[in-house]
Each structure stands twice: as structure tokens, then as C-alpha cells.
Amino acid sequence: MGKRSIKNSLFMSILLIYILIYMFFLLDKLLIYSESITASFCLLVAFISFILFGYQKDKKKYLKKNILGLVITQIIMYFVIIYSLGFLVGFLKNSYSLSVKTIFSNIFFNLIMIVGIEITRYNIINANKDSKFIIAGYTLIFMLMELMLFIGTYDLSNTFGIFRFVTLAFIPLLVKHFLLSYLTYMVGYKPSLLYRIVMECYVFLVPLEPDLGDYLSSIFSIGLPFLIFVYSSRMIGEYENGIEHDFSKGMFHLIDIPFYVFFILLICLISGYFSYFILGIGSQSMEPVLKRGDAVIVHKVNNPKELQEGDIIVYEHDGLSIVHRIVIKTEKDGEFYFYTKGDGNNSSDDIELSMKDIRGKVLLKIPYVAKPSIYISNLIG
Fold this sequence. Notes:
Layout: H1 3-29, H2 34-53, H3 61-89, E1 91-93, H4 100-127, H5 132-147, H6 159-186, H7 189-201, E2 208-210, H8 213-240, H9 256-271, E3 276-280, E4 295-299, E5 312-317, E6 320-332, E7 335-341, E8 358-366, H10 371-379
Antiparallel strand pairs: 1-2, 3-4, 4-8, 5-6, 5-8, 6-7
């Protein structure tokens, strides 16, 4: 085993031992001090990385400047989009205290953790640039070090809690840390440092946050680092091919437009916050017209005149969204009521529906699209 391999083994062991100590001791016994202890540990590992791997000054000044501009632009776009959505979905009051003392305490410890880890990442990647396998291993460890800070906020005793943990914490952090390692490998530590400081510290400063919910939160926390990766890799590719990218002329290409249109439409449809939404068919009650695993595009309706006998609608009952056909439409004292039946059922539904129960009218069927989501829904109960 070479000298560098010994150093990597020793350093990885230090990081993994701390993760185990945090999970099985700090999380249970010293949770109130865990943030300050973790911040101190991050400073310590940064110092150890200097001793074991040294520090090399980055020389890609032109590229670094453009990547920093890219990261800033993408972050600004992110905030513009989510706060614009906030006017549609509502805002939540920030759960963190906005007193000067609390703001300073929260930002101080987070800054120490961020700077410590990103300097460590930079030193390690510079010392192991010929081994992407080792870099990937360190990236996973850094992700686990951040993940352990959130694990206590999720109920992992049931499949739904595990599903939320995976989609809201594990996958977003995995994508983020691979982006950070990529930027550090190709450019240096400054873009990664900027990204983390803004995205992880802004929450301590704002009085209101958009009420995005689990779905949109997951989409945006995965989508932002993914887009930064796409555009930074394009810019780096141009740089390596001797093409000087003029950032002032923009970073978007015409080929990006279909992607953005599809991405925006997908968010609008799946979120359910807009006039149209998409819903998966989870039963066989509407066969043969709608099969299990199909998806339907639904238009929200408020006027009973838009609904007629024979229309397929989506209504809420006992917390479930049910897709059945209207078989009877009646009017009582100026109010309209509806009775429904699944095409594949032998009898009508024993439910009288009013407009407040109806989510919308089915406009279009997309075969097989919902099969993965139906499988996941069954898996998590």
C-alpha cells in the first residue's frame, strides 16, 4: 500500500468514525451540542487535510470567474421562481428566530461547517485527481456527514417516512454533493463554497418561505444542482476545446427550450396547484376505458354547468381521489348533485357528490405513464 493510500485510508476512517459517533452517541446524548461539535470537527478535518494532502492554489481564474457567474445566475433564477410560486401556493412563516443573536449563532456554525468541508474537499480532490473512485468515495462520506444532521427530523419507523427521507433528503443531498465535487474537481472550491453558503444560510435571514410542499421541494432541490451541472459542464467543455465562453451573451441555447417547457409543464401538472393536473389510475374500476397504471389529465371545474352525465370526473372521498363516470346529475334547491359509477363496477357509488367534492373533469388519458408511481404508492402503503 502506497503512502497516499495510507493517508486516504486514515482520513476516511476519521470521517466514518465521526459519523458513527454522531449517530449512536451525539444524536441521543448530546443533541443540543451536536451543531457546535460538528462545526469544530469540520475545522479539525480541514486542518488535518492540509497536513496530509497539502494545499494547491487554483490557477483556472478565467474559468472560475465564469462558473461563479453561472452559479450566481442559477441561484437568482431559483429564488425568483420559488418566491413567484409562493404567490400561488402561499407562504410559511420562518420557523427560525430572526433575532440578531440567533441569526449570528445559526450562520456562524453553518459557515464553519461549510468552509471546513469545502476546503477539505478541495485538498482531497487535488491530491487524488487521478482516482475518480476515491473522489466518489469521499463525496459519499461528505453527503453522509450532512445527511446525519437531518436524520432525526424524519420518522423512519414506517415506509412513508422512509420515502420522505429518501426523496427530500437523501437524493437531493446526493445530487448536491456530486455537483460540489464536480465543480471542485474542474474549477476549484469557490463555486462550491458560494453555492453552499447562499443555499444553506439564506433560510436564517428571511421572514417568509414559499409553502412548496414535499413534491415541489424535492423537485427544486434536485433540479437546481442538476441544471448547474448541465450548464457548467457545457461551459467547461467549451473551455477545454479552446472556446472562450462570453458569459454576457448568456448561457442558454435554443436546444434548451423544449427541456424547460417540458420541465415547467411537468411541475404544473403534478403539483396540483394549477388549473390542470395529472393523476395516476390506481385501480381497475374504470376498465376498459382507464386501466390501472394509466394517467389522466384533469381540468379543475367550479361551475356545475361544465359537468354532464357521461363525463369522467375526479372526486375526493375519505382522503382518496376517485376517478369515476357521472351517471346521474340532479338539482335540488338550486344546488347540483352528482352520482357516479366505475365503468368496471357492477353498481353505482353510494355517494351523493356536490361541487365541493369534485376536483375536476378528465380531459385526456396517457397510457402506462403512472405505473412507476402506482408501484411506489403500493410500496409505501
